[in-house]
Amino acid sequence: MAYSILICDDEALTLKTISRALEAEGYEIFLAQSGEQAVEIAQREHPDIALLDVVLPGIDGVEVLRQLKRLDSSIVVVMMSAYRVVERAVEALKLGAYDYLTKPFHVSDMVNTIGRASEVLALRVRVRDSVQDARGRYDFGRVVTRNAALAAMLEQAKKAAESDKTTILIQGESGTGKEVMAKTIHYYSPRAQQPLVSLNCAALPDTLLESELFGYEPGAYTDARRRKEGLLEKAHAGTLFLDEIGNMSFSVQAKLLRVLEEGNFMRLGGTRTIQVDVRIIAATNKVLKDAVSRGEFRDDLFYRLNVMPLFIPPLRERKEDTVPIALDMMKRFNKDLKKNFTGMTPEAAECLRAYTWPGNIRELRNVMERTMILATHGDISLDDLPHEIREFDAPPETSSGEVEISSLTTPFVTLEELEDRYILEVLTATGNNKTHAARILGIHPTSLARKLKRIPEEVAAEH
User: Fold this and answer.
1) How does pLDDT run across 182-222, given as a tens digit for each residue?
2) Domain count of the chain?
3) Domain stops at, among 313, 345, 371
4) Would you say residue 414 has pLDDT above 70?
5) Which PROSITE patterns does the record associate with it (predicted)?
6) Which of 72, 102, 132 marks a domain boundary?
């Protein structure tokens, strides 16, 4: 890609020498001999890179830098200065200049510096492109719903996203899409170009969770040989998503509360206070208010997190969404699996609506992917759906709301045995492709390997 460069210097010979060298490298060149002229050209031409002399007639190069950054914060600026005004170049670096050259310099050094600036610009373009890709995947407009409660929640989420400092608490059962909602909020917010860092609080023991979140200094504990930045630092200027925050210990909760109240923290074993600008989005499948009442979660942290509460209703409470979501998934899987399904029969649609979906959207996704792998094409029929979905019959409830044991299917098997059978069915359907099977099952390939080891040989042989 040929980038455009604005060169500003009050010496005509310098302009001529630099422009010739950079034109030979394929850059598009704009020339200015004063700061005011440079700003005027930048407003009209929107150059990618600016090469500015510090000392200029009229407004100086540092002021031009300020104005160019206000026009376009992504412009990459390289300053030029003589030895006697190098302090002004250092000031320019603090204002966002990429680098500076000290006059007199070799033309080859200047070309190399501009080359490095171009690489930075290329990286920024890639980051911008990836953000646009993410916005395509995580977009409020892509949420399929006919449910009034969820539609109202989405409107609240949009408003919360625009307020980029507001702390958000997303609550809902496992599989309802809390992480997807958090990503959608981030990419809809003014922080979209900045990092989105995620941490599952239920996946780590307390000590490891604390070191991952806050980082540590050398000697903080036995194996801490070097400094490590925590996720809070890595998320600076962006968003930190804390999944399953209801599993966080009281000691870590107290430190997180300080971050929310004061915007700073200390690494483990550290003595220096580190300031961060980060938006916290937390999620949990627990009812945190009840956890506070039971003394399982700090009330002060709950109120700091609960500034903008969002609740995602389970799929069984919005049955009108089941078939539209399934059809939307069908379009995506048609592309991924190279299939050509056109819809589903009324019987299959009614079967999906009748099922209670304890695993919510995640379970529906797995069912649709497995069904489309095993079926051929055309409309998905009732017979194409997995046995457990097709044969589902909601058990009657007793007056106390408990399921009558007499309504359960016999003969009885353990949950582990049911899981083993399901794993083997998915493996068979995927041609024993363990990576693909793990994705359908929603588990890590290592977890799948561990589960396969426990399955008796005679059971595996049956499949």
Assistant:
1) 999 999 999 998 889 999 998 888 878 888 899 888 876 76
2) 3
3) 313
4) no
5) RESPONSE_REGULATORY, SIGMA54_INTERACT_1, SIGMA54_INTERACT_3, SIGMA54_INTERACT_4
6) 132
CATH classification at residue 62: 3.40.50.2300
pLDDT score, position 405: 34
Structure tokens at 42: 């930048």
Residue 101: beta bridge partners?
80
Which CATH number covers residue 227?
Answer: 3.40.50.300
Task: Tell me the C-alpha to C-alpha distance, in Å, between residue 217 and each of 173, 199, 231, 313.
Answer: 37, 20, 14, 42
296 and 287 in contact (C-beta within 8 Å)?
no
Average pLDDT over residues 449-460: 78
Q: pTM of the entire structure?
A: 0.62
The reply to whether 330 and 455 lie within a common domain is yes
DSSP 372-393: HHHS-SEEEPGGGS-HHHHT--
Dist CA 306 CA 87 (whole Å): 47
User: Between 229 and 111, where is the model more confident?
Assistant: 111
CB 150, CB 170: distance < 8 Å:
no
Write the single-letter amino acid at 172: G
Verify that 348 and 308 share a domain, yes or no: no
Domain of residue 122: give its range.
4-132
Residues β-bridged to residue 378: 341
- CA atoms of 199 and 212, how far apart (whole Å): 9
Q: What is the DSSP letter of 243?
A: E
- How would residue 406 be classed by pLDDT, with cut points 50, 70 and 90? very low
Scan for tokens 């005004």, then name that residue. 85
- 3-state DSSP: the chain helix, strand, coil percent, rounded to 5? 50, 15, 35
Give every CB contact of residue 270 below 8 A, 6+ residues apart in sequence.
216, 217, 220
pLDDT score, position 222: 64
Looking at the DSSP bridge assignments, the partners of residue 200 are 243
Alpha helices in 342-433 (DSSP H): 346-354, 360-374, 387-390, 415-429
Q: For residue 154, which of 127, 123, 188 has the smallest C-alpha distance?
A: 188
Q: Is 320 found in the same domain as 234?
A: no
284-305 burial, b if ≥16 CB within 10 A, otherwise e? Answer: bbeebeebbeeeebbeebbebb
Distance CA(394)–CA(259), nearest Å, equals 47
- Based on the fold, state whether residues 323 and 200 are members of the same structural domain: no
